[in-house]
């Protein structure tokens, strides 16, 4: 299978030119033959009239004339057969012409006959007074020979030019594909340390969409690598602190002289381990829902079932903190989404609300339908987030300065990633008169 554009173009151009040359040869052959036939027919007609004039002067005797033998150096001179008749019989005939008529039909004009084992072009003609009747013929082979000679003389020089023409085609195609080679070289030069876009000013229009797509791919790859670098750096920094604390507490437990100090240190080790475990789990979740890496399987999902499942799982934690979770859910509200990711999103929102809400407060989860939107909201009675801080809380590992709750700072970053994957919108709202803080996810109704 031919996969090279250069070879394909050269092959197609040579094939097309060869076909064009062959068609030209055929047309030239037929046109030349038609012109030769017209010229020779005119000569036969002229010769017929001359013979009729001669016949009038030589009526008293039947004369056998020569057949015009071919002169030396005249390969296309014609050897003619002719018969001149009147009402009394034959008046004149050529040397090899028979004494009987060359044809037995009354068809006037030109026609082809076979005589002496070859084809002849014959003219059947009467004079103006209808006194003399002439048959005059000449070989067809001479005409064909002349037509072939003229055709060869015209087309052979062109055929001899074909090798040079093939070289010109190869050179032209090579020069024409130079921008593609430059584009290929530019792509080869890209690597993990060089992901800058390809310059598009010299890219041909035919491959411009491809180059634009490559630039888009390079841009997404650069964002992904930058995100991975930032993610790796932040993860290493965040893991270093709890691991160092675990090590210190373990050393304290080893050196403790009494049981109380040892138990306190071990308790700190357990808490540090739990915090590290939670952080690692959040890191794994974040990696799975990153928009550049996530493999989304979207299906029709009932949001009410998702809310009931997640709120049921966190009901024990809510009772432990003496917080009531209320659900105000409309029925039959479906979205196209990934159920697992939607559960992770709601779990993080509800977990944050439970962590930062005071005891004996109420958290409301609402699910409502608007014109073209479906809104899922979590409303708590905590003190909320200051407006100047709200745009920062979606950053990875960002935690509010005054918070006393332990966490990884990844929960809302995960939420934002899932919202992006579902082409939804997240809004934060501080409710008036200390009524609480609202986080709303708006899905397009499909």
What does it look like?
- This protein is an alpha+beta fold and 446 residues long.
- The chain has 3 domains: 5-163, no CATH class; 205-289, Helix Hairpins (Orthogonal Bundle); 299-444, Histidine kinase-like ATPase, C-terminal domain (Heat Shock Protein 90, 2-Layer Sandwich), CATH 3.30.565.
- It has helices spanning 5-57, 140-160, 162-176, 178-189, 208-255, 259-289, 303-313, 315-320, 339-356, 387-390, 411-421; strands spanning 63-65, 81-86, 89-94, 109-115, 118-126, 133-139, 299-302, 324-329, 334-337, 362-369, 373-380, 425-431, 436-444.
- Strands 1-3-2-6-5-4 form a 6-stranded mixed sheet.
- The chain is rod-shaped and about 155 Å long.
In short:
This protein is α+β, with helices and mostly antiparallel strands and 446 residues long. It is 52% helix and 19% strand. The protein has eleven helices and 13 strands.
Question: Which short descriptors sum up this protein?
Answer:
446 residues; alpha+beta; Heat Shock Protein 90; 3 domains; rod-shaped
- Give the overall average pLDDT: 78
**Secondary structure tally: strands:** 13
Number of helices: 11
Q: Helical residue percent?
A: 40-55%
Q: Which percent band covers the strand fraction?
A: 15-25%
Low-confidence stretches: 60-76
User: How does the overall form come out from the CA principal axes?
Assistant: rod-shaped
Question: What's the arrangement of strands in the largest beta sheet?
Answer: 1-3-2-6-5-4
Class from helix and strand fractions = alpha+beta
The major sheet is characterized as:
6 strands, mixed
Q: What distance separates the N and C termini?
A: 46 Å
């Amino acid at each position: 299978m031919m996969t090279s554009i250069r070879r394909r173009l050269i092959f197609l151009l040579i094939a097309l030119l060869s076909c064009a040359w062959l068609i030209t040869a055929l047309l030239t052959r037929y046109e030349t033959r038609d012109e030769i036939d017209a010229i020779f027919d005119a000569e036969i007609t002229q010769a017929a009239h001359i013979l009729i004039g001669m016949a009038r002067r030589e009526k008293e005797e039947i004369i056998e004339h020569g057949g015009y033998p071919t002169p030396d150096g005249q390969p296309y001179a014609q050897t003619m057969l002719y018969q001149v008749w009147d009402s009394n019989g034959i008046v004149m005939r050529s040397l090899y012409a028979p004494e009987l008529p060359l044809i037995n039909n009354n068809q006037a004009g030109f026609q082809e006959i076979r005589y002496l084992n070859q084809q002849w072009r014959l003219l059947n003609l009467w004079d103006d007074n209808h006194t003399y009747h002439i048959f005059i013929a000449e070989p067809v082979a001479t005409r064909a020979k002349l037509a072939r000679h003229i055709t060869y003389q015209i087309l052979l020089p062109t055929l001899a030019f074909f090798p040079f023409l093939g070289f010109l085609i190869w050179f032209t195609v090579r020069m024409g594909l130079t921008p593609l080679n430059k584009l290929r070289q530019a792509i080869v030069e890209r690597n993990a340390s060089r992901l800058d876009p390809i310059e598009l000013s010299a890219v041909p229009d035919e491959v411009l969409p491809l180059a634009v797509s490559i630039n888009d791919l390079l841009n997404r790859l650069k964002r992904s690598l930058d995100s991975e670098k930032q993610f790796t750096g932040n993860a290493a920094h965040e893991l270093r602190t709890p691991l160092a604390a675990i090590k210190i507490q373990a050393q304290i437990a080893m050196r403790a002289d009494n049981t109380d100090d040892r138990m306190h240190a071990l308790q700190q080790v357990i808490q540090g381990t739990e915090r590290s475990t939670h952080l690692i789990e959040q890191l794994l979740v974040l990696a799975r829902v990153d928009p550049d890496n996530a493999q989304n399987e979207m299906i029709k999902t009932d949001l009410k079932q998702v809310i009931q499942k997640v709120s049921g799982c966190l009901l024990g934690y809510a009772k432990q903190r003496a917080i009531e979770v209320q659900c105000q859910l409309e029925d039959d509200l479906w979205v196209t989404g990934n159920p697992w990711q939607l559960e992770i999103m709601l779990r993080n929102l509800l977990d944050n609300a439970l962590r930062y809400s005071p005891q004996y407060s109420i958290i409301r989860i609402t699910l409502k339908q608007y014109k073209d939107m479906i809104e899922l909201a979590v409303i708590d009675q905590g003190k909320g987030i200051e407006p100047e801080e709200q745009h920062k809380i979606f950053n990875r590992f960002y935690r509010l300065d005054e918070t006393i709750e332990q966490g990884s700072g990844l929960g809302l970053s995960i939420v934002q990633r899932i919202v992006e994957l579902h082409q939804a919108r997240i809004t934060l709202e501080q409710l008036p008169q200390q009524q609480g803080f609202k986080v709303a996810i708006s899905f397009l109704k499909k």
